[in-house]
Structure formats: structure tokens, C-alpha cells
Amino acid sequence: MAEKIKCLIIGSGPAGYTAAIYAARADMKPVMYTGMQMGGQLTTTTEVDNFPGYPKGTDGTAMMEDLKSQAERFGTDVRFGMATKVEFSGKEGGVHKVIVDESTEIEAQTVIISTGATAKYLGIESEQRLIGGGVSACATCDGFFYKGQDVVVVGAGDTAAEEATYLANICSKVTMLVRKDYMRASKAMQHRVSKTENITVLYNTEIDEVLGENVVEGVRAVNNQTGEKTEIPVTGVFIAIGHKPNSDLFKGVLDMDDTGYLITKGKSTKTNLPGVFAAGDIQDKEYRQAVTAAGTGCMAALDAERYIGALE
Ligand SMILES: Cc1cc2nc3c(=O)[nH]c(=O)nc-3n(C[C@H](O)[C@H](O)[C@H](O)COP(=O)(O)OP(=O)(O)OC[C@H]3O[C@@H](n4cnc5c(N)ncnc54)[C@H](O)[C@@H]3O)c2cc1C
């Protein structure tokens, strides 16, 4: 027997919990499935300095615990589980079926998708070990901690170029490591990089190892044409090789762009199917911040509430 509910929230990052707070306060009795990463991406970082309301900054995991408590305070039913299959109705007022962990069947009037995105890393041991100790996938989030210091940016696309120019304003020196002999970034972004004095671009260059025991002390770079290795002393390593939106479940069901980000209509969180909404990084490849995710989470709950209101 399927459990029948008004509002199902898939994902427990800032978007999901904010949607839950609003939906619960609107008496929609939301049920949330957290996915494998309860609390979302912020649980992988220790310092969050830019979320409003924490004048001294906070720890990512602690902040997400606060959001969870706030959502539960208003009656959100937070459950550990993965949405594994969806059968969304294409009709106004239709019932959306979601299967959790291959077995639990939920029938929801509205579904808020907040499954986020996953930053891509190189995957080498030293990089993985030093995530949070100088290795980061987000210059906007962590750049400030490297003020006046030397850093490396890995990547060759628009995001890498943007992160490098952002960091160049804060850091003393930025070295970009580009695997091929050219950059993929747009001509405009390449131009911004080349006219920024404190950015150096090294082509045909990859990271062989991130140096340091508990914190980053440098990188050993390798020229993939000559094999020559060079040590670059830096305190921060920014990996900017892209993100993967967690949208595989919705392929062929919901409209998404060619990189897998869900498409929402205009300024709303509405997807192409009535009663199905998307919030946070899953529908935002532009800003990807906790506060913007939370903002769209609020919007999704309001959109869902209005959708149900209009049916009644
Ligand atoms: C290392 C790091 C540091 C960062 N630091 C900052 C910072 O200082 N400030 C800032 O503003 N931003 C920061 N960010 C960015 C910020 O974390 C994201 O923008 C934000 O978490 C996005 O929130 P979200 O709710 O969209 O999704 P996410 O946080 O990505 O959460 C997605 C959720 O969906 C769940 N999920 C996925 N698939 C399923 C499924 N099939 N079923 C159920 N659940 C599912 C996951 O378990 C997870 O709970 C940082 C990111 C990283 C990686």
C-alpha cells in the first residue's frame, strides 16, 4: 500500500530543508528523504563564513543540523532513504509516485526535488585526503581563507577561468593548471584571464600530487608532454573541473539542459510537469551557493502550496 502525502521533498541540503520549513509551516506535512548525504554538500566543509545569520561563521555539518532541527520543529518527517524511481503524473492534480530504496511507495500531490549537484574532483589520494585542508571545489566559498596567499586552480573551462579571476582579486598569485594545450573557456573569459597580471597559466600540466600532511603546502605538477615535474608552493588548491547535477533519476521524465541541470520555468521553481518543483543546485549551475539554494527552497514550497491551493 502506497503512503499518500501532500508534499514529498527529495534531498536534504539547504534547498530541501528550507522547503521543508516553509511547507511544514503551511501545514503541508512534508516528508523528506535525505539521500545518502544527509545535510548535503555543506557537510563536507568545516567553515561556512558567508551564510547570513552566523556572524562568527559556522561549521557546515552544525549548520545543516540546525536546519534539520528547524524543519523538524514544524513537523517535517525527515527520513533516511534514496528515491530510486519516479512515476510523475503529467496531469494537473495528478498523483506522483516515488519509490524509495526500491521498495517503499509514496504517492504525493507535490514533489520538491532538491537533489543538488556533486563537485568533480581529480580522484588522486593526496587531493582527497586534503579536501577541507586546503583543497576546495568552490572559490566563492573558500577563496577568502587564502587572502594574500598563493593558490592553484585546476581546470580549463569557464568555471575555472571565473574562479581564477575571482581568486586573483583576493590572493597574491594564482597558477592555473590546464591539462591540454588550450583552454575550453570562452574567448571573453580567456581574455579576462590573460589580462589579469597575477594569473599564470601552465598548459599541458596536471597535478601529480598535492603536497602536505594535514594542510596543503604545495603541488607537484607534471608536464604531460615532457614528463618534467615541478613543485609549486601554494596553500590552496581549487579544483574547477565541473559539477555533476544529481538528476539521473529524472532523465527522460523532466526537462533538463544538455549538462543534466533541471529546467525551471521563468522565475519559478516549476518543472515541465504540474506539481513537480525543483530547487537548489539541481536547477542552478550559475550561483551554486547555500543561500541561493535556500532561497529557491523557499520558492519551491510556496509554489507547491499555491499549486495545491489552486486545485482545492
Ligand atoms: C566543499 C564545499 C564547500 C562549500 N562551501 C560553501 C560555503 O561556504 N558557502 C556557500 O554558500 N556554499 C558553499 N558550498 C556550496 C553549497 O554547499 C551548495 O550550493 C548547496 O549545498 C546546495 O544545496 P542543495 O540543497 O541544492 O543541494 P546539496 O547540498 O547538494 O544536497 C543535495 C541533497 O540531495 C540528496 N540526494 C541526492 N540524490 C538523492 C536521491 N535520489 N534521493 C534522495 N536524496 C537525494 C543528497 O543526499 C543531499 O542531501 C560548498 C560546496 C562544497 C562542495
TrEMBL record:
<keyword id="KW-0676">Redox-active center</keyword>
<keyword id="KW-0560">Oxidoreductase</keyword>
<dbReference type="GO" id="GO:0004791">
    <property type="term" value="F:thioredoxin-disulfide reductase (NADPH) activity"/>
</dbReference>
<dbReference type="InterPro" id="IPR050097">
    <property type="entry name" value="Ferredoxin-NADP_redctase_2"/>
</dbReference>
<keyword id="KW-0285">Flavoprotein</keyword>
<protein>
    <recommendedName>
        <fullName>Thioredoxin reductase</fullName>
        <ecNumber>1.8.1.9</ecNumber>
    </recommendedName>
</protein>
<comment type="subunit">
    <text>Homodimer.</text>
</comment>
<dbReference type="Pfam" id="PF07992">
    <property type="entry name" value="Pyr_redox_2"/>
</dbReference>
<comment type="similarity">
    <text>Belongs to the class-II pyridine nucleotide-disulfide oxidoreductase family.</text>
</comment>
<dbReference type="GO" id="GO:0005737">
    <property type="term" value="C:cytoplasm"/>
</dbReference>
<feature type="domain" description="FAD/NAD(P)-binding">
    <location>
        <begin position="6"/>
        <end position="297"/>
    </location>
</feature>
<dbReference type="GO" id="GO:0019430">
    <property type="term" value="P:removal of superoxide radicals"/>
</dbReference>
<dbReference type="InterPro" id="IPR005982">
    <property type="entry name" value="Thioredox_Rdtase"/>
</dbReference>
<keyword id="KW-0274">FAD</keyword>
<dbReference type="InterPro" id="IPR023753">
    <property type="entry name" value="FAD/NAD-binding_dom"/>
</dbReference>
<dbReference type="InterPro" id="IPR036188">
    <property type="entry name" value="FAD/NAD-bd_sf"/>
</dbReference>
